Amino acid sequence: MASPILANLTAQVAQNVAVESSAKVLIDGLAARVQAAVEAALANGATEAELAPVQAEVDALTASSVELAASVAANTPAAERR
Where exactly are the structural domains of the chain? Predict the structure, then answer.
């Protein structure tokens, strides 16, 4: 019979991975929308210098998403990766 402690831990890990994956989708979507706004502003005459602070935020969101994905992958048991 499986240990209830191990079963609870396994369930919690699965829940955390699902939540973290959802967070990554949210972060990626937000970064993409802001990036599209930056590109539209550039196309309409804004300069890269004017948009540098916004681009820095897009870059930070993207880096955060990459870090989150790496953390989830590193902490997901191989049997759960597909």
Answer: 19-80
